[in-house]
Amino acid sequence: MPRDAIPQIDAAALKASISTHLKTSLGKDAAHASTYDWRMSLSLAMRDLVVDPWFAATRDTYEAKAKRVYYLSMEFLIGRLIEDVAINLGVEEAARTALTDLGQDYQRVVANEPDAALGNGGLGRLAACFLDSLSTLAIPAYGYGIRYEHGLFEQRFENGVQIETAETWLSQRHAWEFERPEVTYPIHFGGYVSESEGKAVWHPGESVLASAYDTPIIGWQAQWANTLRLWAAKPLTLFDLESFNRGDYLAANAPESLARTISRVLYPDDTTDEGKELRLKQEYFFSAASVQDVLRRLLSEGHALDDLADHVAIQLNDTHPAIAGPELVRLLADIHGMPMDRAIATARACLGFTNHTLLPEALERWPEGLFARILPRHHRIIELIQDAHAKETGSDIRIIDHGEVKMGELAFIMAHTINGVSALHTELVKETVFADLNTAYPGRIINQTNGITPRRWLYTCNKPLGDLITETIGDGWQDDLERLGGLRPHIDDAGFRAQFRAAKLSNKHRLAAWLKTRDDVTIDPEAMFDVQIKRVHEYKRQLLNILETIALWNDICDSPNGDWTPRVKLFGGKAAPGYAMAKSIIHLINDVAATINSDPRTRDLLQVVYPENYNVSMAELLIPASDLSEQISTAGKEASGTGNMKLSLNGSPTIGTLDGANVEIREQVGHENFFLFGLTAQEVEARRREHGFSRRAIEESPRLTRVLGQIASGVFSQSDRERYAGILHMLYEQDFFLVTCDFDAYFTAQRAVDQAYRNADRWTRLAANNTAGMGWFSSDRTIRGYANEIWKVASPRAT
Ligand code: F58
């Protein structure tokens, strides 16, 4: 192991490097430098330190002829990188000291970095955690994605209504990337296919260039670095000179405008896109560039295409890059002359596919006409894949069916292994969405329960708790998280519990101070912080949470002298811009907040806070400060969840349903340390078949009846009684996500939470048992599972 590759740098040397960058990279002197200038200089100084380990990793991979992992994902939800890089390099103290010496405040400089928000939610954040773990485990890997000019939209509330504006992280220089103008591939669309001498020839209608930008991803203790390669679309020709000379400036700009739109913006939908042409072009654009890059590297290293699967493991993060399968077949067969059957088998031998959802509306399908127009050759190749599949299995499952190209079926059939993301989800994948394919290809579906990187999600974001852990069980848990189990015996120690409580309280103070500064909101750190942070979606049931909040408010008002547990209900999350019901739920939460927060009767006992624009950086503040984690999705709908893991790891017990990874969290932390409620996935299916189930549930619950009556009579929307007619109608007539059926059970579970929290000592035991029990949920464990069971790769550093 080339330990000499680890950069050694002290505060003085780092200070000198920052000053040099300020002068020569930013062109500023210290007297006139802005926070931005300092942030860039610090980032560039740290980036310099990443380069040697990065080169060493590439060299070792090459020399060992090691197999590489290629993780294809439309989304990488990275957040900020400064602190992450600093802690992985072990230079955080040096950086702090260097900046202080230079008269700058480290935290202010860190906070100047915009979040790289190249993802919507869990799927994109999982990809970022996986990159961290791949580097920490020294597994040779590339992440491939799109260098969106605009990440996930910014959210603000106007009179409680979500307003979206474009995100602009690339309006400033991105400090961490290296532009690779020499690494480009042409990407074609449209046109037609001809046959010549029995060979298919694609004559494209339009083309763009995919141009690479590389960000090194450094692992724990700088032992290894992999590459995140993001593709930007560029025009093949800058402009059409002939049109320009004629004075037709619009036509002159046409090549550039197609290219610019392709990598312009991340789609903000958290369910499927209704056949939007640009989305398909984005998917093909980055999949095709990535696959070309993979083959170029393989050939440049002197390997034969027939041996592809010995050197290459490609993972499809959901169906979004599923077109990589047919593209690989096209390159092998049409360009490199491999027989079609062998090309299909060769491609399949290196492809894995991860499914992240059971929601039928989220399974991508393209209208066949649109698909064939944009990708005529791939349309034909998919028919050939379908024929090969039919011949192999005798099954009549079709990829192209009723005028649609079904990307789930395509990804499944083209992959040697399909995985779900939690134990429950994987079983449901086998029984529901892919039941027929599971019969046709028994054993192909396996489970890899999600995980999270403990470096970002505990060590970096929660210093007080991280320090306590190190003090108690020693160092080493950061890359061996199961060691947290060693905390268990200490939970009986009153001194440890006091320190655990103190750590949580200091995080709560930090959050309170941040809310005060940013939003002028005052919250009491002594109150229970009850946190629901995630995309807003009906199945995640923020609605259930806010209805319970109203019911609690009613109860407090009815018995003002009762033994209440002060609570702050914190919400964070965005709704897809086109998702009317989710936006209405956001509006309701904000309306309820306005009403309850101004009620002098309950002010000290109940508060609702919904900070705008939830993102990774806000999560890093909220999670360490949370007392209670809301994981209340309708059973059977949340594939896994990863926020549930982050919160529990940070000492925040869960109130939740038997859904996704909640089931496994509850096993690991102990049933007594988890507040369970609600129908099971099986009961949900059965209940839905009962006629009028939601009306009955409402009638049987006086509390819920009262709450819905208040909403209907305009208690929270005095100016507009009709505002929530849509929500009410949905609850009475349909309630697909069974909010009404789980309401009473949820209310009761919350009162058990209240009671437990009132006993500070009991609560600390609960919270500490959560931290101690979460070791299994490190994404290092998840990546080891993928490496052994799907990719068959090992680190060239493994001895
Ligand atoms: C999420 N999916 C799952 N999709 O909902 C969550 O349970 C799971 O923990 C996580 O993946 C990681 O496995 C998710 O985040 C998206 O955001 C897609 C964005 C693009 C369109 C389709 C949904």
Automatic annotation (TrEMBL):
Could you tell me which Gene3D superfamilies the record lists for this protein? Glycogen Phosphorylase B (3.40.50.2000)
Name the InterPro entries for this protein.
Glycg_phsphrylas, Glyco_trans_35, Pyridoxal_P_attach_site
GO biological processes? glycogen catabolic process
Q: Name one GO molecular function term.
A: pyridoxal phosphate binding
Q: What class of enzyme is it?
A: transferase
Which cofactors does it use?
A: pyridoxal 5'-phosphate
| GO cellular component terms listed in the entry, alphabetical order | cytoplasm
Cite a single Pfam family from the UniProt record.
Answer: Phosphorylase
Q: What EC number(s) has UniProt assigned to this enzyme?
A: 2.4.1.1
Q: Which residues carry this modification: N6-(pyridoxal phosphate)lysine?
A: 646
Q: Which UniProt keywords apply?
A: Allosteric enzyme, Carbohydrate metabolism, Glycosyltransferase, Pyridoxal phosphate, Transferase
Q: Catalyses which reaction?
A: [(1->4)-alpha-D-glucosyl](n) + phosphate = [(1->4)-alpha-D-glucosyl](n-1) + alpha-D-glucose 1-phosphate
What family, per the record? Answer: Belongs to the glycogen phosphorylase family.
Q: What does this protein do?
A: Allosteric enzyme that catalyzes the rate-limiting step in glycogen catabolism, the phosphorolytic cleavage of glycogen to produce glucose-1-phosphate, and plays a central role in maintaining cellular and organismal glucose homeostasis.
Q: Which NCBIfam families match?
A: P_ylase (TIGR02093)
> How is this protein named in the record?
Alpha-1,4 glucan phosphorylase
